[in-house]
Please model this.
Amino acid sequence: MVTKVRGASETPPTQARPKTRVGVLIVDDDATKRFALRTVLAPLDEDVVEASSGADALRQLLRSEFAVVLLDVRMPIMDGFETAQLIRQRPRSELTPIIFVTALDQAETDMGRGYNLGAVDFVFAPIVPAIMRAKVSVFVELYRAQQELRRYRTQLETLVEERTIALTAINRELEAFSYSVSNDLRAPLASFDGLSKTLVEEHGKELDKRTIANLKKMREASERMASVFDGLQMLFRLSSGEIRREEVDVTVLAGQVVDELRAADPDRNVSVDVAPEVSVSGDKRLVRILLSNLINNAWKFTATKEGPGISVGREVVDGESRIFVKDNGAGFDMIDSHRLFGAFQRLHSQSEFPGAGIGLATARRIVNRHGGRIWAEGVVGEGATFYFVL
Model:
């Protein structure tokens, strides 16, 4: 026979949480009736509290919370209905279940008025103990479950707050590190680019064509790296600072971006349609960067298209106003749509469409900072449409 000994790594059996006693309030001016009700509820093993009048009941409700109130209808000075009305007027007890206790011959009159005052049930004298316990136990267990949910919610909120603080600290450290690295690498990269340029300018006649071509490739690579660092620093800057919302004229900003693109690339003939009177509530500086990245993206990916076209506008779908930037360029496979907005994620080769792979990641960060959302739809060879909502 083998005797199994629990090892240190084994988890002990889960112990049930001890039942917490909850309060039940009995309100009746007759001490004999209160004693009878207490006796009936004794098997439930809960904290039964007595009140001899409506005023006394209100005082008890100020001191404690109760799972349910058993309220006698016929009481002098302040009857059960008046007491119920005052209970419901107090925020702390406005949702506390009330079971009215009344005589059977008063049922028709009392029930209508009682339910109007928020009663959850009625019990008629003479009381049947089993029925009374069953009704009360339902609300006791409901109250206990609500308390447990409240406890879990508090724990969850605390946990989320702690994790958020920790994640924020980690993100700040990571961004500070990345910013430092990009700055530290920029200086030697600039020196490398400058030396390559000087070598070509001062000793170009002494170098063969292959060497000059390699130096040119080295300079192009350093320029791409510098572009990556610029994009990274842009992402870091977008993570901090206050959002200052105002009414932003998208039509004007988009027009400015298109004018800059035409000036930088005068040989391209791209048809651009910007809808009039398009505006959005957002940070003007960030919205301009957002539009610049999306329109630049459309401009770049229509480079190989005959009759390239870009449109910027607004549409309303199911009551939601969304801005779009649409092009008829290279497009993309929707299977890869989840990769579009990641930093350094590219769906096309560098030789086909050059770039740092930062633009759409920047666009998403701007939209996220506004509490909005951004997404894209596309078809390979037929173009893409980027939507955003701030």
Summary: The longest strand covers residues 309-317. Confidence is low (pLDDT under 50) at residues 1-14.
